[in-house]
Amino acid sequence: MTHSPEELLISTLADMLAGDRHVAVGAASPIPGAAALLAQAEARIASGRRMHVSILHSRRHNPFTEGARELFDAAGQGRIDTFFLGGVQIDGQANINLVGIGDYPHLKKRFPGSFGSALMYFAVPRVILFREEHSPRTLVGKVDFVSAPGTSPPEVWRRGGPKALVTNRGVFSFDPAAARFRLESVHNGETPATVAAATGFDFDLAPRVGETPAPSPRRLALLRGEIAPKVAQFYPQFAARVWAIAA
Amino acid sequence: MTHSPEELLISTLADMLAGDRHVAVGAASPIPGAAALLAQAEARIASGRRMHVSILHSRRHNPFTEGARELFDAAGQGRIDTFFLGGVQIDGQANINLVGIGDYPHLKKRFPGSFGSALMYFAVPRVILFREEHSPRTLVGKVDFVSAPGTSPPEVWRRGGPKALVTNRGVFSFDPAAARFRLESVHNGETPATVAAATGFDFDLAPRVGETPAPSPRRLALLRGEIAPKVAQFYPQFAARVWAIAA
Amino acid sequence: MDDFNRMTVDEIAAAIPDGALLGVPADYSGVPMAATRALIARKARGLRLYCLPLTTIQGDMLIGAGCVDSIEAAAVTLGEHGLAPRFSAAVEAGSVTMRDSTCPALHSQLQATEKGVPFMPLRGIIGSDIAAHRPDWRVIENPFGNALDPILLLPAVKLDAVVFHAPHADRNGNIFIGRRRELATLVHAAEKVYVTVEKIVDEDVHASEASAAGGLPAFYVDGIAVAENGAWPCGLTDVYPPDDTALAAYAAAARTEAGFARWLADQGLGAGNAA
Amino acid sequence: MDDFNRMTVDEIAAAIPDGALLGVPADYSGVPMAATRALIARKARGLRLYCLPLTTIQGDMLIGAGCVDSIEAAAVTLGEHGLAPRFSAAVEAGSVTMRDSTCPALHSQLQATEKGVPFMPLRGIIGSDIAAHRPDWRVIENPFGNALDPILLLPAVKLDAVVFHAPHADRNGNIFIGRRRELATLVHAAEKVYVTVEKIVDEDVHASEASAAGGLPAFYVDGIAVAENGAWPCGLTDVYPPDDTALAAYAAAARTEAGFARWLADQGLGAGNAA
């Protein structure tokens, strides 16, 4: 069964969520949102276990009742196992920049801002960096502005941090002690060399950099049959584009 | 028109609330609660002005929607103008004791505890001390335990504090600079001398200590006609005793 | 199909271990009396009660039955039914340690845990004997002040468990708590969260904005037991009023240790008194 | 009989003075677009926006119309409609000062005022360039720690005013805000509170526990104006969805200053652009 690039990314992210009790997904994140719902469905099928998924963008899947602070409070309490962050720029030390390009505060190009990244990156045990565009423009040697640092000195309280970086070219893990990414797999059509050419920072290589596993037929069927209609409810444009379905 | 002792106290407290925007009344306080509702009705009649009255004991008159912390938060914000506090003991420096009699923690007689007094006494501009029993047992030279101090050193943040002490014998004002009470009026049948004999601390005398003014016929009619039925809804036993009405 | 961990009241009592720091709601806030009777029946021992911010018959019964080592609260009282007799007797005898606090401090120490911070500042309290007897509290100079400005810092408190009673849960395990947001504070600060409810309803608490505003999300909750009249003899807002006759009977009986023991026996809890 | 201070939308805009530190709700939280148009119409100047925690078209329009000196937020964006063009242009040109923050900090600084304390601690953030550019924030050593444990302290922020849009108020002046408790935080931290509503309803918001749980008490509110579709083109939860066509049209028009001016003129706000 063939799959789309988006379905590969959803499948890759879903693998990283197995075992979580509670996955939260921020705004404007259809692929992480679909991955969380897929992992939730698979946990139910495999073991009857309930995985909580909180998708801020969705009326139906947003469980919070104490206003916008509750996600951050829940993260502070250690109740969120995995969260997703992106970045206008991500550098080799996993620092992320959501603010802009240029010499802050005199930016050449202003982006929206840091959102809750400066807390979530510290408080959530597993943060998955997700940025589709994989180029020297997005994956840089040093970010122009640190919205949230990838690592912290030992005396600074930090429950979690970056565990992985997923792009449209491959999958990296992150070693906080070395403050370096390691390429774990490349998507179909890429090699470590093509990935390195598209990356603005140095990274390590896994002993064997394989191809990112394609979603199984069974997983694809679940994704298209059960998950896609749910995603269409809160990301209609994305669902229409990827699965040609309406909300 | 004759009035009961309770009606005199309600009337006396109501006089102290004129001009307030927001009066809050804690648990187990039928007389302060009735006084607040009376002052509210009189402000409406006099000028059409709305005085907010929050009575924690009442489902109907408790406006808070963020749980039990909201009263204290609102006080911290400076939104409560007057609050009432009592005490197992009150001393001449306006320290109040809601905890017990004896050498803390080895008390001879344990009472419930300090409730929110240790914040409210600082945060609310005008705190009215109200204790019906006026005896050397309740108005003491020095409290056995300071649930909340009557005065604070100048460097300690304090927006408000004790403004008056009302008992079943008279009305005192309080001078925080001198940390002393001053007898302002005595209830019918009392004199400064009988009050002094029943008081365990020294206090000053106003230039002319008059008799506590009796409620006017108009006020009594309002109290009995409009306020008493409201009080009966949340203090049925008190209303039955004082006004012989049922909820 | 229920999509939550359904327990019995006895299983909840068994899941709260001896010695636990246990969150206790106020009398207006869903008193878990069915679970309290189950704790007494299982002869719970060494409980440390943390009240938000006070307790009435729940704390008094647990103390009278010998389940409690210490209690932190702004007040322990039977309200209009008078002093809490087993509490007062135990404190006067020195058999239970009372950690005197004040309402906003009890809220703030849980809110610190709620926000994942190690402490919270609070105004007032300085100069009271409450502060004088709390070596776990600190006074610092306000770092943002220009002049001397002492302010109290209170350390975060994390509860081992909380149990409360609520009107209903839905089949997804969301709880309806209405305006009683202090229950959410207790929950956010607790390691384990158990809830007893009057009933399970079919309509999702999150279905409408009005209902959701009074909801507690399922992801906080470790187990739910159905216990009809589970707050009795305390009341449950908009569901049933307090049973003042039963509360008055308790207040009268509990004035003496013997009277309390008889009252427990009448409740089928005769073997629950202090070991 | 209405028992609240009824105002018009224009009176609300007039009551918010030039230079005010103005609370701004997020796009999911009752965006006061009618009041925003009235602020532009009255040529408000020098506003300092404090967003909880972000703003979309409201902040972008106010900036484009020259009403804003500075803005503090975790993000300014048109969401699925792209970057906020007037915001980005103004920040790039240096004509508006952006005070970059992060969502939980924006909540905590208002919660400090809510609790009447001078500061609140917050975890994380240390080592970010957000913290590096905020001289008003302090790092201290945790007084309760045993080892080195730096923690950020954030000073309390008191807003001069807040205005937001809500589904309804009752005749006693209570506001229904549903689950949007961040609106309560904005209110608690504001000197003056103005609300626009779709309608005034006869049933008291406090009448039932479910409705009261989504209520904001009247005593916080300084004035209420009825403004039907008052959040348009933003949505209002459970009342109407965002008008994506209008938002897309705004996003396209506002890409240039001239396009924005034409768009304002089409809204009858032609004279509102920067002086």
Protein model, in words:
- The complex is a heterotetramer, with two copies of chain A (247 residues) and two copies of chain C (275 residues).
- Chain A has 247 residues and is an alpha/beta fold.
- Chain A has helices at 5-17, 30-47, 69-76, 117-123, 192-197, 217-234, 236-243; strands at 22-25, 52-55, 82-85, 89-91, 96-97, 100-103, 106-110, 126-130, 139-140, 161-166, 170-175, 180-186, 204-211.
- In chain A, helix 2 crosses helix 6.
- The model of chain A has no long low-confidence stretch (mean pLDDT 96).
- Chain C is 30% helix and 26% strand.
- By secondary structure, chain C is an alpha/beta fold.
- Chain C is globular, with a radius of gyration of 19 Å.
- The longest helix of chain C has 12 residues, at 103-114.
- In chain C, strand 8 and strand 9 form a beta hairpin.
- Classes of the chains: A alpha/beta (247), C alpha/beta (275).
- Chains in contact: A-C, A-D, B-C, B-D, C-D.
- Chains A and D meet through helix 3, strand 7 and helix 4 of A and strand 5, helix 4, helix 5, helix 6 and helix 7 of D.
Shape of chain C: globular
Strand neighbour order, sheet with most strands of chain A: 2-1-3-8-10-11-12-13
- Class based on secondary structure composition and strand pairing of chain A: alpha/beta
Number of helices of chain A: 7
User: How many E strands of chain A?
Assistant: 13
* Alpha-carbon Rg of chain A, integer: 18 Å
Beta-strand portion of chain A reads: 15-25%
User: What pattern of helices and strands is seen along the backbone of chain A?
Assistant: HEHEHEEEEEHEEEEEHEHH
State the order of secondary-structure elements of chain C, H for helix, E for strand: HEHEEHEEHEHEHEEEEHEHEEHH
Radius of gyration of CA atoms of chain C, rounded to a whole number: 19 Å
Identify the biggest protein-protein contact and residues per side: A-D, 47 and 54 residues
Key features?
heterotetramer; A: 247 residues; alpha/beta; 3-stranded mixed β-sheet; globular; C: 9-stranded mixed β-sheet; 3-stranded antiparallel β-sheet; 30% helix; 26% strand
